[in-house]
Write a structure and sequence with these properties.
The chain is of the alpha+beta class. A hairpin with a 4-residue loop joins strand 1 and strand 2. It is globular. Bound molecules: tetrahydrodeoxyuridine (THU). The site of tetrahydrodeoxyuridine has 14 residues, from helix 2.
Length: 131
Amino acid sequence: MSDVDWQLLTDAATDAMRRAYAPYSGFPVGAAGLADDGRIVVGCNVENAAYGVGLCAECGLVSSLHAGGGGRLVAVVCVDGAGNVLMPCGRCRQLLWENGGATCQLATVGGVKQMRDVLPDAFGADDLGRR
Ligand code: THU
């Protein structure tokens, strides 16, 4: 989709990355998403002394999406500490799938793709309905 301002999204993700709380990994991450009503939602990773409790940047993004009024994600960018595109971890791909679906666009190391490309044959809400 050509009407996504990827530079604006990347800048928002980079800005959020700078507010990450990642004292344990030293690996700050920022995420920004464009919602279907035009708003931009962001998140950063927030770690914890109990390592497994840490939150990925995408968790914050999804929480912000809902807390700010809901809607669907149409485009997402995640960046690392250098501001370079970062692939969402597997768990976060599932989070993005739930909130953006198969056609949500994702900036990847191989260019813009759809969620269906990075999480093929995904499990989702439809699977629950079928059973
Ligand atoms: N991290 C994210 O925030 N998102 C991802 O998709 C990959 C990993 C965070 C979790 C942890 O705080 C740090 O990066 C190192 O794994």
